[in-house]
Amino acid sequence: MKRNNEYSVIKKNYKDYPSDWRTIELGNLLEKVRRPVEVISNCEYHEIGIRSHGKGLFYKETVKGSDLGSKSVFWIEADCLIINIVFAWEQAVGITTAQEKGMIASHRFPMWKSKGNVELNYLLKFFLTPFGKNLLELASPGGAGRNKTLGQDEFNKILVCIPSNIEEQQKIIKILTTWDKAIDLKERLISEKKQQKKWLMQNLLTGKKRLPGFTDEWQEVWLGDVFVFDGGIPVSRNELHMNEGICYLHYGDIHKSNKSYIDVKEEYSFLPKMLVSVNELNSNYLLCDGDVAFADASEDYEGTCKYVVVKNKENIPFIAGLHTIIARPTNDSISDEFKQHCFGSFNVKRQFAIHANGISVYGISKRSIAKISFSLPSLPEQTAIANILSTADHEIDLHQKQLEELKKQKKALMQQLLTGIVRVNAEKVI
What we know:
By secondary structure, the chain is of the alpha+beta class. The protein has helices at about 1-15, 65-70, 120-125, 130-140, 150-155, 165-205, 225, 235-240, 265-270, 335-340, 345-355, 365-370, 380-415, and strands at about 20-25, 30-35, 45, 50, 55-60, 65, 75, 80-85, 95, 105, 110-115, 160-165, 220, 225-230, 250, 260-265, 290-295, 295-300, 305-310, 320, 325-330, 355-360, 360-365, 375. The protein has 2 domains: about 1-165, Adenine-n6-DNA-methyltransferase TaqI, Chain A, domain 2; about 220-375, DNA methylase specificity domains (Adenine-n6-DNA-methyltransferase TaqI, Chain A, domain 2), CATH 3.90.220. Strands 14-21-17-19-16 form a 5-stranded mixed sheet. It has a 4-stranded antiparallel sheet with strand order 2-11-8-9, covered by helices on one side. The longest helix is centred in the middle third of the chain and has 39 residues, at about 165-205. It is elongated. The protein starts with a helix and ends in a 13-residue tail after the last helix. The model is unreliable at about 275-280 and about 425-430 (pLDDT under 50).
């Protein structure tokens, strides 16, 4: 009864859609496709899966028929709406193509063809909206996770409101597909830029490639030669903030951060203006300008070599939290700009991986960090290398922001086009 009431509310919501659109159950739009495979034990089969959040189909490893056992599998047909019924509530929805024809899927991946009055890609776009996700959840009774399984009778009863004219559906798809292509191109470009930066780091930070005008020999140094080490404050964030009347900034979750440096002044500006007292605090816990903070524990061994360069010229009280090792420079042999990049080379990361120990959580000690070596050029060459790598970072960051903007535009378009707030031109695609 509750589910029927929810569908009634949904039907009322459709009253704001265009009057020439129709509200209809999916069972009247789709026809189920089901062709069982007669498994032959010595034959090989390609099985497919579906990623959540509308990220498409993927192919599993080839499997022999004998390894399928009693598992019920079905032939994939081209041009079908396909859903993972276990994760339908998480938008594990896709469209099959001719490329998947001849592959197989288990009974958990039912398929439907259009009866001719709906474009499957239109339905796919619809199910990738928050409203479409809500409808899939309503049709998936049960608890959380694998207990929430799409009921196929409930699926057939899902009410959708779609353009009556299939040409309008096709034009909407064409517009949204244009944004999809732009997003895909931008993601590929970002991936290429990251690969380019990785190449620059591997070559510039090791001296394999020298910049014009620099011929001085590089020094091979240990981190212990140029840093001294302290630990972060041995209490949690909550325990620290329990000190009444005292406000401390601290940065303890380095292994969860994607930043290469933090500007304390920028971070501090977000906190309420409170009286800061450090009288009872060991000054070794405070992060100073030019310090480098390493994570001493992480859920993956690469996390132990993540680091943050601190910018704190104003000497604002800023505390390194739990699971943090503070590396303080002993001299001016490394520029702050170079610090942001010099620990990112494969050689340094490899050494961190060797020294990291643990099973579920990896840790590294101050003594081990002190033994890690890297190549150090002259200060002028450090500056030149840092400028190139920082420019690469800036370019990647710019493309990331453009990507986020494209995604926002697409999201707004989906909301407007799939609800009829904005109609496509009858003569041409907008």
